[in-house]
Amino acid sequence: MAMTDRGTSPELPPGLLEEYLAGMRAELATLAAIAERLAAASDDSEALEALRRATHKIHGSAGSYGFMEASRLAAGMEATAKDWVAWPGDPEVERGPITRWFVARLAEMLGLPAPRAPAAPVATTPPLPPVGSPPSPRPRATPPPKPAPPPKPQPSPSPAQPPSRPPTPAPPQRPQRRAATSPPAPSASPTRVPRPRTPSPPTPPTAPARPAPAQPGSTDLPWVTPPSPAPTARPPARAPAPPVKPTTPQPTAEALRVPEVIYVEDDAALAELLEYGLRAHGYRFAAYRNGREALRELLALDVQGTHPLLLLDVDLPALDGYSILGALQRERPGVYRVVFTTVHGTEEEQLRGLEAGALDYLVKPMSLRVALEKIKRWVGR
Q1: Of 82, 217, 327, 338, which has the maximum CB count within 10 A?
Q2: Do residues 318 and 132 make contact, with C-beta atoms less than 8 angstroms apart?
Q3: What's the confidence (pLDDT) of residue 14?
């Protein structure tokens, strides 16, 4: 019974894994044809390059779909194929049998039947598909969402209430009259002659207090104390206005047509996985399969002042990722935020990408859940 490591990627939707395995059946048939060509001619440079590219794709996509053992097997075969491409005339290496073993082992790990070797002679073997995937049609972009309605104008604050009228002062109360002091009565004994005494100096009479001038509205009596003026009523304290929060500028209708994420990926299985994740999370995105086509479109794209995230594969047909990044830095510096995606996750390779100007590095095989979480941070959602 074939042993597989299937089912380690729970974020895959129903049906997508089956589509990947259907594509891998066709890929196994292609690898079997390559093995027969190498068995007939071990120095077939076209077959060697096709083997390198096929194992490179399987290395990146198998782990993303949950087949980690198959991904590691493809990584080892990719390194072997690179050596074969570098020294195609080495007569001591039996490349055909080794490739047949790789195909059978890969099919076992994927839980698929091993393809049968063609019974026809080698001369009648169907021609090998061209190296690299054909360029896909124009990029499919998700329809832009409807523009947000303009914000409703806020009603102007109502004017402050006028201050209330001061309360009417109460009528003044009449003070009580002061009792007049009667002068001392004269002595009642006229017959008694008093002894002569030194007369004391007379006390000067106290001058009567001048009445205060009458206030308007008061009586004219001099002993009435005028009322004190009523205190002026203070206007009610106004509540402090709430702080004005800075409003985020709303994107224009033209900016809503610009993709938020652009990915350039030649592996059809991995591109389909990214498309599913981006569509499920509501991103505006565009996809390219060929490096030269991607560069032409990226140079002509009107980004409307935005900075789209560019997921750029390093190993691309026609034009590699480093060449694309260099052209963008010369022609449109600072427009795109570039993140490299590749199976080469060595320290030297990552430092090379960061020093070239990339924002970050995404190593394949990738977890879709982790990739989407990183994309959310890179985009700024």
Answers
A1: 338
A2: yes
A3: 74
- Within 13 Å and on the Cβ side, how many CA atoms surround 122? 9
The confidence band for 120, taking pLDDT boundaries of 50, 70 and 90, is very low
Helix (H) or strand (E) holding 104: helix 95-110
CA distance 260 to 279: 12
Residue 317 and residue 132 in contact, taking contact as beta carbons nearer than 8 Å: yes
How far from 133 is each of 53, 59, 288, CA to CA, in Å? 10, 16, 11
Separation CA 55–CA 207 (nearest Å):
126
Q: Say if CB 175 and CB 226 are below 8 A apart.
A: no
**pTM to 2 decimals?**
0.55
Nearest to 298 by CA among 270, 265, 264: 264
Contact between 34 and 51 (Cβ < 8 Å)? yes
Conformation bin of residue 135: beta by default, left when phi > 0, alpha when psi is -120 to 50: beta
